[in-house]
Every structure is written in C-alpha cells, then in structure tokens.
Specification:
- There is one protein chain.
- The chain has eight helices and eleven strands.
- By secondary structure, it is α+β, with helices and mostly antiparallel strands.
- Helix 1 runs antiparallel to helix 2, helix 3 runs parallel beside helix 4 and helix 5 crosses helix 6.
Length: 272
C-alpha cells in the first residue's frame, strides 16, 4: 500500500528504530515530510507494522532515470515477495534501485525469475556523522561561500561523472532547486567547488575544479554542509564508492564513521 499524509510522518518515526541500516529510506522521508521533493511513492508491505518499505520515484521524463528507488527490508521472504509485484517494481522497463548488499541474492533471484538482464553497478560505504561536535575546526577565513542556483547547472553537469548521460542536467536542476547545496565562489562570484544533497538526504556530487584543488575547499564544503543539514534537522551522511579511497579518508578525518557490516548496493536492469 502507498503511504500518505500522517502515515509518512509515522513511518519516519518508525524507521529511526532501524538506523543506520534504514538511513537512506529514512532520509527520503525526512526531506519528503519537511520540504517536499519530486513525485515519489512510499510503499509498504503492511501497515503499520511493515517489513519492507520502498521509495519509488515516478518516471515522467529523461532526467527521472537518475532517480533510483530505495528499498529497506527486515524480512528476506517478504522482500522477495514484495519486489516481485509489478506495482512495486516494473521489471519490463529500465529499473535502478539501491538496497543493502546483504539482499543481493534475493534481487538476483527475482530478476532471474523475470528473465531480466542487469548488473550491480556500485557498492558504497555509508559514512555517517553521528555527532556534529565530532567535526574538527576548519579554517574557512578568506573563503566565500554560497549556494548553487539554476544558472550553475551546466557547470556542474559538465564535471559530473554521469553528466554525459541524457537527462542528467534535468536531474541536477531538480537537486539544486529542491535540496540544500553549498559552493565556494571565486572573485567573480562563480562556483569553483560545490556539494549537493540527494533526495535521500545524502550529501554528494562533491567536486573542485582542477585549478582550485589543494586549497582545502572539500573540507570546508563538507563541514559547512554538515552543519547546514544538522541545523535543519536532517541526517548527515554520504555514500562513498568502495574504490574511492581519497573521499573515504576525507570524510573519516572529518569525524564520519561507518558500520563495516553494511554496504549499499545499486542494481540496474533493462538499461539497454
């Protein structure tokens, strides 16, 4: 069933019991309940005592293909039965969703049943700032900070790893318009480094232009964004791909920690 109104607020509260494993779905609900977001359905197997909860974006234009579904489950059998359902996961079209890596075999089994080809495209550490006081003191004197706006979409898109994909600009425009961002501005008030927030409330798209690296801008941005999210009552966390040792070290040095037993995995099906 799809949750609406007060049910969404109740679900947010219930998901706190399962943190940090439920962090990404919890983050979706936090933003959905406080600032709204692009159209998204929140589905559960049963209410109010759910075992599976799914955040399912509505795919209406090309940029929506970057909006992945998120799934949180505490029961493997019910998870399998839930994602089999056509009204939950449409296995006949492009499908991208993220889930705890421990559920990989269940995902593969359902895809095999549906005779659908796909692949695991990313496995990430989930780094969480449990206590804002863990942030070290960062000297940002002389650094001009601001927020991104629609005029900066082209710049961010050109430097984003997925920026060559059709519809990526639309996706980034939605992020910048709806969710918190932070950037370092040069003397002409143009961004030279930035960080955004995904619909799951995770920080991401952290980037510094090559000619401005080595100045500590990434530390300033992460610290500033962490404080901004915390002040607004949002969870403070990010995902870092397993092979990205530089970013893992950066966030670790800034007080972020992880549960080593947990990995977030992204799966894509029908991508061709």
């Amino acid at each position: 069933m799809e949750l609406t109104g007060e049910q969404l607020k109740v679900a947010e509260t219930q998901l706190r019991r399962f943190l940090p494993q439920s962090q990404q779905v919890y983050g979706h609900l936090v933003l959905r309940n406080r600032v709204g977001s692009y159209p998204i359905k929140i589905l559960v197997d049963h209410w109010p005592d759910f075992s599976v909860i799914v955040c399912q974006p509505q795919y209406e234009q090309k940029g929506d293909l970057f909006k992945d579904s998120w799934v949180f489950a505490i029961d493997e059998a019910i998870l399998k039965e839930t994602i089999r359902k056509a009204n939950v996961m449409n296995w006949t079209k492009y499908l991208c969703f993220a889930i705890d890596l421990c559920h990989e075999e269940t995902v593969k089994a359902v895809a095999s049943e549906r005779n659908v080809s796909g692949s695991k495209v990313a496995v990430c550490h989930k780094m969480i700032l449990e206590d804002i006081s863990n942030l070290p003191s960062i000297d940002s004197s002389g650094v001009s900070l601001g927020s991104l706006d629609e005029s900066h979409v082209g710049l961010v898109n050109r430097t984003w790893k997925f920026g060559q994909e059709e519809g990526s600009g639309v996706f980034l425009r939605d992020m910048i318009a709806h969710f918190p961002s932070c950037c370092v501005l040069d003397a002409e008030r143009q961004p030279v480094a930035w960080i955004l927030t995904y619909a799951s409330c995770a920080m991401g798209v952290l980037y510094t232009l090559p000619e401005h690296r080595g100045k500590g801008y990434a530390k300033v941005l992460v610290s500033t964004m962490a404080k901004k999210l915390h002040a607004q009552g949002f969870p403070v966390y990010c995902f870092i791909e397993e092979e990205n040792l530089v970013s893992h070290r950066l966030f670790t040095n800034l007080g972020f920690t992880e549960d080593p037993s947990y990995r977030a995995a992204w799966f894509v099906f029908n991508s061709s």
